[in-house]
UniProtKB/TrEMBL annotation:
Full protein name: RRM domain-containing protein
Protein's UniProt keywords contain RNA-binding: yes
SMART domains according to UniProt: RRM (SM00360)
Taxonomic source organism: Eleusine coracana subsp. coracana
Residues annotated as domain RRM: 79-167
Length: 192
């Protein structure tokens, strides 16, 4: 917050940083800001978009979609799970092999398939039934997988988090709320 205020970003309601599961104490390279007003968000957008706003860190700023939670009726229809912590070495076939033990997998969507994915370690597993999705979430509660996809001892463990995917609801957000939220990614670019 101090760094944001130092470059002139004011009227901040909240800042959300995603922790990097592979580097404790570091963030995942992106943040979400919610500002008090649309005007404050527009000012923040301009200030964060300026070259050198964070020194040697290259920033990509975009408008974010508010995270209004889905209603219970929509959640009862969800047959997909959201997976975090997926190693880059795991492809669609490996993901299908790991997750088919909970039910028939309709298809797998990896972060490389998502045009606007902010993270490279996520995936969606789409099951044919809701029961399979729920069984998957319950089975992964606090478990770790080894690199070879078994839940037994191994030298390299992968911390995978699984949750029910949130349904996509088109056109339900409040325009003013959407215009007061920003998302930005950080990438270190050393200057010569």
């Amino acid at each position: 917050m101090k760094l944001l205020k130092r470059i002139g970003v004011e009227n901040i309601n909240s800042v959300m940083l995603k922790a990097d599961p592979n580097k404790p104490g570091y963030n995942h390279g992106y943040a979400h800001l919610e500002l008090e007003t649309t005007t404050a968000a527009r000012v923040a957008y301009k200030k964060l978009s300026k070259k050198g706003a964070f020194g040697k860190w290259l920033i990509t700023v975009q408008w974010a979609t508010p995270s209004n939670g889905p209603d219970e009726k929509d959640m009862q229809k969800v047959k997909s799970v959201f997976v975090e912590g997926v190693p880059n070495s795991w492809g669609r076939d490996k993901m299908t092999e790991i997750f088919k033990k909970y039910g028939m997998v309709e298809h797998v969507v990896l972060s490389c398939d998502m045009h606007l994915a902010l993270s490279t370690d996520i995936a969606y597993i789409h099951y044919t039934t809701r029961e399979a999705a729920i069984l998957c979430v319950q089975s992964f509660d606090g478990q770790e997988l080894s690199e070879n996809d078994s839940k037994v001892s191994s030298h390299i463990f992968v911390n995978i988090k699984v949750s029910l995917a949130k349904p996509f609801r088109k056109g339900t957000q409040n325009k003013d709320q959407k215009l007061s939220m920003l998302s930005f990614t950080l990438k270190y670019v050393p200057h010569p």
